[in-house]
Each structure stands twice: as structure tokens, then as C-alpha cells.
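Sharing a chain and its predicted structure for anyone who wants a worked example. Both blocks are below, sequence first, C-alpha cells second.
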Amino acid sequence: MGNDTTPVLDVSGPSYPAPGTRSVAGTATLGLPDRPESVRSARDFTRSTLSFWRLGDQYDAVSLVVSELVTNALRYGRPAVELELARGSHRLVCAVRDASSRAPRLGEPDENAESGRGLHLVECFSDGWGWRHQTESGGKVVWAVFRI
């Protein structure tokens, strides 16, 4: 699990929540191609990672958030997209990086629209979320945090 890129935690700065109070217990990253099936690959990766970390009971909420963040990165961001999961003693952080500097927007969804609710779902199913520009590498990272 992982690749040779700089971990999101290393470049995201102080507004990125620390996974735990003492240290990161584990990280896993997955590069995602610019294809619709990448969302399923991200969910599968999340399932296997959470299972390995013995956090399978967190899968439903985390996979929904992963799906929304990856979908947004593929739809509104620019390649390359990367998913990173970081586990601490009390928190799990899900972060999605893409090459676009365009800020995510939490808008008012049209009740008749089929889209536009993703970040609302992220807000409801996680314990917090945010984003920031990545000045050194360009692009942005959008993250969500879960208490474990």
C-alpha cells in the first residue's frame, strides 16, 4: 500500500488535523487514474485498509466520504488524484489530493438535482472536513476526519 510521492500529511500544513494525539499509527496511499471506475477502486482500497487496521466497523461512513471526495476530485479537479488514509490513536483522516487549485464549494443543492450534495454528505458523515492549497506541489487537498 502506498507509493513514492510525498505524503499528504507532510505537505498539508497546520490546518490539516493530526490523526492522533501522539503519532500516526499508519498511512496508506493510492494513486487514482482519471476514470469513473477509480471511485470503486478507492472504496475497495478503503475497505482493505480499514480491515487491515481492524477498523472495519468504520467502513460505511468512511467509504461514503471517500466516494464523495474522489468523485469531486475527478469531476472538478485535475489529475493526478491521490487518496491517503492516515490512522492515529483516536482519529482516522481521509485525504484526497488533486492538481487543481480550485476550492471545493459547499453549495445549496437543488432538491430536484441529481448532484450537488457530496460535501453535505461529507459534513454529515464525518466529524469534520476542510481543505487547503498545497503551495509547494500545487493543487489542493480535501480532508475529512473521523473519531475512532
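Comments welcome. The chain has four helices and five strands.
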